Amino acid sequence: MDFRGLVSRIIQKTTPEVFVANLLRGDRLTITDSYIAVKDRKYNLNNNVSIFAFGKASIGMYNAIKESLSHHVTKCYLSVPYSSDVAASKTNSDMVEVARAAQNNLPDKNSVDITRAIVQHAVSIDDPDHICISLISGGGSALLTEPLIPLDDVLETIKCLVSHSATIKQLNTVRRFMDGVKGGGLAHCISPATSISLLISDVIGDDMATIASGPTVPQKVTAAQVRDVLKELDIHTNLLPSSLLRLLDNAKSRDTGSRDMCCMVQEEEGIQSYLSSEQDIHNIIIGSNKLGLCEASMEVEKLGFQPIIVTNTMEGEAKLLGSDMIALAGEIIRGVTEFKFDQLKEDDVSNAKKKIRSDNICLLFGGEPTVTLVGEGVGGRCQELGLSAALALSGYHGNGDISVIATSTDGQDGPTPVCGVCVDSNTVPSHLLPTATSYLNNNDSYTYFRKYKEEVFIVSGMTGTNIMDIILLFISRNSGKLR
User: In the predicted model, what is the mean pLDDT of the chain?
Assistant: First the structure.
């Protein structure tokens, strides 16, 4: 099977350009020469549009929408990762400011500087007929930041949370508390202008308040919520910078950029609107892991496999998920139910099994596993899951074939040049079982594959988007289908 070609086709169908084009073909957002409408709420266009783009998909989203807005855009700011192809943004230097920022997906001085420019422009707008369009995607938390504590302390806090296996929701809850533009802060700066945001989700459940830490989602983040996260992760205060502790102590309840305003909240078809006498705020999900799994299903079906989406909310320890998936595959091939899974949810597994109608199936999982760092190796979520699955598959001689494709959608799995791996029963030969186990225990999956099985790597290059990870578990009850 050409697994690299399969991953490439899936990525091509989940680009920012595709997501924006699909949006404009529907009825959620309409752009004409004279107006822009969110469902049936219209706003006149008359050289009165500003664009703020921040995230891994910034350039693709900007290129996809700018032609529709034509000459109405008066100013645009793009905050993009260092790896972005800025030349591809086709920018007019007089109108567009582009900043490369957030080295290693962490906020830096460039992030702060471009955010300051965005905020200054936003607060200078006093025309209620002006329209600010924010293009938001994964990585936006690091690319748009106005720290309320020293930047070095922000980085220290993030490192502490990550080392304790914080989920993206937990991480972004704390980020919102430490930052002036997160948690609705940008929308507040934009007022009284209308705020329309297009979001590509990189979070479990597509919670708009969590995507890029919700800069255009009015809300309150309390000190109690932050303390709850620290308690959940068993992070003691002596591990945190004193500036954050002071921020917590000085605020029983902090409102990070949102406003106390009387508003009507409407939610429908992936649109969340806050409508008030002061300002209209619209947030629209245009891309997500769920949509990516649907596209992947269609590609899998073309290969002769029955696609079954198990979940788009996959969480948990990557190495345990890998072994769980192989145990599930074994159950399906043998037609039994005997395994108690560590990370997979029993309801998801049960529902998936009920849908099986073929001897050749592909179970699809979407979400974002975590890796608890106990070693000093090099790897990523997908590679760790893949190595764990390969260990569980090592020497498999049962009926049928099993293989696993685990890939990120942003093109980079951890601090490595690969986006994922494809593994099967031959990936870890029996004589390398102790070696592979040692590498896995040291969180060193990339080094193992590079040294012993480099052909499993999937390399896509940076994709310019991020809808979390996609895992494909291929199961054939008849040997030979996967070769």
Answer: 92
Q: DSSP secondary-structure letter at 235?
A: -
What is the three-class DSSP state of 418? coil
| The pairing of beta strand 194-200 with beta strand 221-222 | unpaired
Indicate the angle between helix axes 223-232 and 168-177, nearest 10 degrees. Answer: 140
Give me 252's structure tokens: 């029983």
Pairing of strands 96-101, 73-81: parallel
Name the pTM for this structure: 0.91
334-343, Cβ contacts within 8 angstroms, sequence gap of 24 or more: 334/398, 334/399, 342/316, 342/317, 343/315, 343/316, 343/317
The reply to whether omega before 147 is within 30° of 0 (cis) is: no
| Cα gap 315→365, rounded to integer Å | 10
User: What is the distance between the alpha carbons of residues 470 and 404, in angstroms, rounded to a whole number?
Assistant: 11
pLDDT of residue 1: 79
Query: How many other CB atoms sit within 10 Å of the CB of residue 360?
Result: 18
Tens of pLDDT, residues 192-231:
999 999 999 999 999 999 999 999 999 878 999 999 999 9
Per the document, the length of the chain is 483
Instruction: State both tokens at 373.
Output: 């760092």
Count of CB atoms situated within 10 Å of the CB of 180: 19
* DSSP of 111-179: HHHHHHHHHHHHHH---TT-EEEEEE-TTHHHHS--BSS-HHHHHHHHHHHHHTT--HHHHHHHHHHTB
Q: Which amino acid is at 349?
A: V
Which of 43, 45, 41 minimizes the C-alpha distance to 72? 45
pLDDT in tens, 279-329: 999 999 999 999 999 999 999 999 999 999 999 999 999 999 999 999 999
Own/partner pairs, 114-117, CB within 8 angstroms, 24+ separation: 114/54, 114/77, 114/79, 114/143, 114/144, 115/79, 115/144, 115/145, 115/146, 115/181, 116/146, 117/77
